[in-house]
Amino acid sequence: MSRFWSPLVQSLVPYVPGEQPKDRPFLKLNTNENPHGPSPRALEAIRAATGDGLRLYPDPVAGDLRAAVADRFGLTPAHVFAGNGSDEVLAHAFNAFFGGGGAVLFADVTYSFYPTYCRLYGLAHRLIPLSEDFSCDVTMYRGPCAGIVIANPNAPTGIPLNLMAIEAVLRANPDVVVIVDEAYVDFGAETAASLIPAHDNLLVIHTFSKSRSLAGLRVGLALGQPHLIEGLVRVKDSFNSYPLGRLALAGALAAWQDRDWFDSTRKQVMADRDAMASGLRAQGFEVLPSAANFLLASHHRLRAEAILAALRERGILVRHFRQDRIRNWLRISVGTTTECAALLAATAEILR
Ligand SMILES: *Cc1c(COP(=O)(O)O)cnc(C)c1O
Questions:
Q1: pLDDT for the residue 18
Q2: In the predicted model, what is the mean pLDDT of residues 1-10?
Q3: Sheet of strand 147-151, all strands in order from the earlier edge strand to the far edge
Q4: Is residue 324 within 8 Å of 109, Cβ to Cβ?
Q5: Average pLDDT, the chain
Q6: Which fold would CATH assign to domain 7-37+260-351?
Q7: Structural domain spans, the chain
Q8: Which of ligand 1's atoms lies nearest the C-alpha of 209?
Q9: Predicted confidence band at 1 (pLDDT cuts at 50, 70, 90)?
């Protein structure tokens, strides 16, 4: 606390990201990073962009990247926004679209950045409770409200919604923007991008951090009808005209174009996820059905916090959220096949 802080800054409750320890080597299964590394072509493109050209500002509209992304979804560049990580894109979207009065709706168990943005922009929010099994009854999303944000698949549960459910939310709330945060969609859910032409209130958010293994590069996207993208551009150009540097633009474009790397690595993650889920269930864990690159798991015999501490002693980090409904659950990111096996060996030993 400082006497120089504005009342707004005093009231903020910042998001707390997962730990990035520097003191000793941990097996990091705590922040949903992709263990397979970025596309070699992306790394090559980043190296090639490192030179005297860095004295020049980057393309403020990220034209090449947006064109490549649009092409993949059968959209136009005017349907695509690019920002410095999808967290920034989400923040701009809350700022641009959720100020119309009333509360922003999102699930009681979901990405904890959403309430943080609401505080930052002075927006009220209302939690929509997930069912006992953490599934989502989308009929509970109906106005009046200021807007809706749904993570699909949800985080930290990993549970996906199908497109019919997303479309039902869009139809029931035609007068507010519905943000679908698809950070994990490439690991087994279906993107709502195909619904964009028919729904002027849909904004789909993607990130390069998870399925393209570029969390360190900070690139995120929004897809929506041009009037929504223009709103985001107005916010961006009132904040930072150059959110993506030259290295990020070069790396993201090459990663986007390397379809083979993307497909082989995400399929590997899905296979390792399913094997790790079976392994954990065989040890007596309850594991939620995940379409993401992580599992949410709970054991009837040992408290989550005890398992968390015991894993840490063995050099393995997983994520625990101090939040009522998931206090006895751990979120475990999917590592390589070897790393998943190491996690299973450690939990087996802890339970013994
Ligand atoms: C990881 C994550 C993001 C943000 O990723 P960036 O690294 O900022 O692109 C957004 N939403 C959810 C649900 C996430 O888990």
A1: 78
A2: 93
A3: 80-83, 220-224, 202-207, 178-181, 147-151, 103-107, 124-128
A4: no
A5: 96
A6: Aspartate Aminotransferase, domain 1 (3.90.1150)
A7: 7-37+260-351, 40-258
A8: 7
A9: confident
Model-level pTM? 0.97
Please tell me the distance from the alpha carbon of residue 114 to that of residue 146, in angstroms, as a whole number.
14
Per-residue model confidence (pLDDT) at position 131: 97
From the number of C-beta atoms within 10 Å of its C-beta (0-12, 13-18, 19+), residue 338 rates as exposed
- Cα 207 to ligand 1 centre (Å): 7
Structure tokens at 254: 């090459």
Task: State in Å: Cα 219 to ligand 1 middle.
Answer: 10
CB 136 within 8 A of CB 274: no
For the four alpha carbons of 6, 8, 13 and 16, in that order, the dihedral sign comes to negative
Domain 40-258: state its class. Answer: alpha beta
Separation of CA 182 and ligand 1 centre (Å): 9
pLDDT value at residue 19: 77
SS3 221: strand
Residue ID of nearest Cα to ligand 1 atom 2: 183
153 CA to centre of ligand 1 in angstroms = 12
CA distance 35 to 29: 9
